[in-house]
Amino acid sequence: MIVDFDSVAKWYGRIVGLVDVSLQLEPGVTGLLGPNGAGKSTFLKLLTGQLAPSQGRVEVLGVDPFRTPSLFRRLGFCPEQDAFYESMTGREFVTYLGGYFGMHGSTLRGAVDVALDRVGLIEESDRKIRGYSKGMRQRIKLAQALVHDPELIVLDEPLTGMDPMGRRRTIDLLRELGDEGRSVLVSSHVLHEVEAVTSRVVLIYQGRVRAHGAISEIRAFLDRYPHRILLRSPRARDLARELMAGEAVVGVRLDGDRVHLETRSPDELYAALPRLVLEKGIDIEELASEDASLDAIFEYLVS
Amino acid sequence: MIPLNGILLSARHAARSCMRGKRLFALLALVSLPLILTALSRIFDTPTMSANEFHGVVLMLMFLFTVPFSALLLGVGVLGDELEGRTVTYLWTRPVGRGWTYLGRYLGSGFGYAVLFVPAMFIALHVQTPVAALGDVSRLRPIAIGLGGFFVYLALFAMLRTLLKKALVAGMFYTLVVDLAVSRMPAVGAAKLSVWHHMMVVHCSAFEMGSARVTARLAQTIAPGETFTTSVVSLASIGLGSLALGMWMARTREYPVAGAVA
Amino acid sequence: MSVDQAAYRPYEGTRRPGHGVVFAIAETSIRRVMRQKWIRSLTLTIVVINVAIGAIMNISLNTRIRNGMTVGDMIENAGGGDLDAFVMTLRGFLSMLYLFAPVIAALTAGPLIAEDRRARALPLYFSRPIRHWQYVAGKMIAAGFFLAAMTLLPPFAVFGMEIANAPDMSQVGQRFGELLGAWVPCVLITVALASFSLGISSLMDRTTAASMLVFCVVIFPVIAVNAAYGSVFTNPAWLALDPFNSIVRIGHELLPPTAGQTIDAYDIPLANAWQSLAGWTAAGLLMLGWRIRNVEVVT
């Protein structure tokens, strides 16, 4: 267990940031999801020791982050805000912040080179940060979080402002970090990007953790919502009629050659499809689940 | 264990910030303005003023204007610069205690200022000095007092920033009300709140003042029993107490940084 | 509907007159400052303290005068003569302005343009039909608003108390004239500080630095003159460098004579006092003209 929140609440005067959050995170890559104002930043600030909980207990890697600065030898944090020492070059910035970990001389230089190379900024590292593009600024933030080779990396909206190539590269990097055995916690409100990185998520909404675990497990819990499945067939009407005859389907909608189904027993439905193809001769050209995505899950949870 | 590396890093960074851009310009203006003004007045107004009088007035302007205002500018920036620039997050997520980082930034700001202040004062105190007297070490003593007073002011204003978001306002009122106004009242307790007052007591007790007018005015604000020692102790108490309180506040208080701008 | 019919049309409705833009900018700026709770508290506190001090001083002086006591302990050069408590209170108020006006100017007027620069809002303003002078005028009104409140309200409150306690209404006209005599220097210092503070603000893109610079530059002459007059400076014209000395001198001209006031203010030639205030105002306007005119809208 790398992160342990035990009945944590945080409020700022009358504004409540988090309410009764109890959560344990295991090593690996985890996504932290929620709309703006959900409490993600508060969660991360508590986790990275910038705030102390109003109630409850927070432990990261076994220690209280607010009171144990030595934790940061093992934790790297990439903050959300676009704030830098603008007069520094990228290299100077990472070197300065890397120096706090006790590295110096060739060790520090080597670590900085590795970090810059990982984020793809080696060539631009000698330019001043004030001349960087938005994507470069995000990457240099990431570099300072990686320079000391931490075992837990926390990233707050790391993909904001990046172009598609930058996003792709960062997503690949996050996957690499996970594959190396590091733990990564990445927060975002862009659901499909988190989906591309990990299958384990924590969903936060209005200061509460609404769900956490594998996406598929979360989906399975949402029994009250029928699964939505899309089928495409040249004989859509016949297909719909045949499926409606069975008990697995609770709703059907036709849209040209597409059949949108709702079912509480997706497995039963999937088992019935081969029979329809073979016995009734109905070709099925496409089969897709419309709500196994995070968007759909999130919509269910917060509606 | 004292993280010397972390303290040195933050000190170096703070010292470099003093020597950069508009801040450097502002500090240079603060240290040189009294000298320029006095020199201009010598040229245009009172060419017969003695060197001692000239030095006395330069000292007054340095102690009453340059030192406290430089300390206000740098003091609120010890923590304020990082908070307002929202770069404090980087410092708070390093394996160095916040109190130590704060101390490092305090020392760095002080050192950076000393690099500007000492030469400026040296020049001011040696202008129009006969060549034969250039080796007189006693002329360097006001520099030590000015620098010491600066570090006290710096600790005080930096501590205020750890307590108040609007420390600049508090600092302005302190210099206006306490240093300028209260310190001129008959010294029954009230003037003892003024760092400037203690600096002048130290200076007047130990050394001769140049300007008779300044000496007479200061004599009115020195209470019976106030000596060199009592004022040094007061200055040390204000300075060290403020520094300790500032370090403790930095370590224990939350300083949430607002979210992303873009 | 064709594409042409669905296309953009310029607004052809009623538009605010030019001066409406000025007031809109002023109102927005004032609201932004007032949104900060601590500024509201600070300005209110200063007004209340000044009113209280003024009232106490007025009542106290009136009492002493009625009892035939002199006020030698409070004012230099007292020694009988014509003592008028209301006028002495007004003079006292003018001589105390240096204690809070620099702070208010620094904190309310100093950031007004600096925060627009920091937020990169100037291109947003000037890519609209807003003239540079309208922007400056609006900011000037906002800058002067708080200073005017600080400087005009307390004397008015004391005037109200004076009239309320007057045995009859015969003195209302005279007292109002005396109030105007105190208000004129207040308006002059408001204009001078507002202009200068805005000029400094237009140079900076950090509000803290702007406030600090305004404060330092305004306070320096106050300190320098205090420290150096009589030794370094012997020419009374130097006293006019301090704008607060200048307004005390002008107040001395406008208010009826009464015994007991600071000598230094009397030493300033009146012309120098006016020149000093004009200089502070002109310096601010020059800085504003230089910085604001050069704003380019880059697309």
Key features of this structure:
heterotrimer; A: alpha/beta; 4-stranded antiparallel beta sheet; 10 helices; C: 299 residues; mainly alpha; 13 helices; 72% helix
Percent range of helical residues of chain C: over 70%
Shape verdict of chain B: globular
Estimated radius of gyration of chain B: 19 Å
| Main interface by residue count | B-C, 41 and 33 residues
Please give the structural blueprint.
The complex is a heterotrimer of chains A (303), B (262) and C (299).
Chain A (H helix, E strand, L loop, with lengths): L2 E10 L2 E11 L3 E5 L6 H8 L7 E6 L14 E4 L11 H10 L5 H14 L15 H13 L5 E5 L7 H16 L3 E6 L2 H7 L2 E6 L2 E7 H7 L5 E6 L3 H10 L3 E7 L2 E6 L2 H15 L5 E4 L4 H9 L1
Parallel strand pairs in A: 3-7, 3-8, 5-6, 6-7
Antiparallel strand pairs in A: 1-2, 1-4, 8-9, 10-12, 10-13, 11-12
Chain B lengths: L3 H15 L2 H24 L6 H34 L3 H5 L5 H29 L14 H23 L3 H15 L13 H12 L5 H10 L6 H25 L10
Helix pairs in contact in B: 1-5, 2-3, 2-5, 3-5, 3-6, 3-7, 5-6, 5-10, 6-7, 6-8, 6-10, 8-10
Chain C lengths: L2 H4 L11 H17 L2 H30 L18 H12 L4 H9 L1 H8 L3 H5 L5 H34 L6 H32 L3 H22 L14 H12 L8 H5 L2 H24 L6
Description:
The complex is a heterotrimer of chains A (303), B (262) and C (299). With 303 residues, chain A is of the alpha/beta class. Helices cover 36% and strands 27% of the residues of chain A. Chain A has a 6-stranded mixed sheet, with helices on both faces. In chain A, strand 8 (200-205) and strand 9 (208-214) form a beta hairpin. In chain A, helix 2 packs across helix 3 (105-118). The mean pLDDT of chain A is 87. Chain B is mainly alpha-helical. Chain B has one domain (4-252). The mean pLDDT of chain B is 82. Chain C is built from 13 helices and no strands. Chain C is an all-alpha fold. Chain C has one domain. The longest helix of chain C has 34 residues, at 132-165. Chain C has helices at residues 3-6, 18-34, 37-66, 85-96, 101-109, 111-118, 122-126, 132-165, 172-203, 207-228, 243-254, 263-267, 270-293. In chain C, helix 9 packs across helix 13 (270-293). Chains in contact: A-B, B-C. Chain B binds chain C through residues 22-23, 26, 30, 33-34, 37-38, 41-42, 45-46, 49, 53-54, 56-57, 60-61, 64-65, 69, 72-73, 76, 80, 84, 165-166, 168-169, 172-173, 175-177, 180-181, 211, 213-214, and chain C through 38, 42, 98-100, 102-103, 106-107, 204, 206, 208-209, 211-213, 215-216, 219-220, 222-224, 226-228, 230-235, 238.
